[in-house]
Amino acid sequence: MTIRSELRDDGVRVVTMDQPPVNALTVQGWFDLARVLDAAGADPATKVVVLRADGKGFNAGVDIKEMQNTTGFDALIGANKGCFAAFKAVYECAVPVIAAVHGFCLGGGVGLVGNSDVIVASDDAYFGVPEVNQGALGAATHLARLVPQHLMRTLYFTARTIPAADLVQHGSVYAVVPRDELDALALGLAAEIAAKDTRVIRAAKEALNGIDPVDVNTSYRFEQGFTMELNLMGVSDELRDDFAGTEKAKGQQ
């Protein structure tokens, strides 16, 4: 199963992404994640959500191979809508969402963590938005919630990544620990929040979203429009084909 959801006795719901080999979610996977998160927030028994992943890394974004193996724009439109739904579900979840990140967090992964309320990471974690390499745009909205504006632009234009330890300095990642301590850290923070009156915490989440200076949903949707333009121009297909060919060659080595 790509997305698992488990409610603990203390009211902490653990949502796990598990899509081998790199947690690059298919169109259906993004919609499944959105559905699970929406259901978590709607369940009065859920007090906090911990969003984590199994496997090599947290999330590698959309499944490029699925997109390239689908004729027309159905996969592109599906990925756009699925990512929008998943990012929105994180942001609008009625309870706090703690992202526990290990390994790589790329593209759509940054969309998820950028909309989370708390981020913790393992010492091997790194973040980046390589969309320009694949002829797409998106998640700058969420990257801008992790680093200052000019650093965001540098990372975005170059498709470089940034280690989790650097994000601690910017205040966006709460703490970095060895990978085998990551789940314990996330669950400990979640339990601390879950011990509060859930009526107050749910009100606090809504209040904090209400005073947010950026409308993340509108901002991200604006970015997606440029991705569609690049696809209509044929630029995105060329770059995705190059990417898919490079990945295939790596697999044969």
From TrEMBL:
Molecular function (Gene Ontology), one example: lyase activity
Annotated SUPFAM superfamilies: ClpP/crotonase
GO BP: fatty acid beta-oxidation
Pfam family, one: ECH_1
The entry's keywords: Lipid metabolism, Lyase
NCBIfam families, sorted: PRK07938.1
Entry similarity comment: Belongs to the enoyl-CoA hydratase/isomerase family.
Protein name: Enoyl-CoA hydratase family protein
Organism the protein comes from: Aeromicrobium ginsengisoli
UniProt lineage: Bacteria, Bacillati, Actinomycetota, Actinomycetes, Propionibacteriales
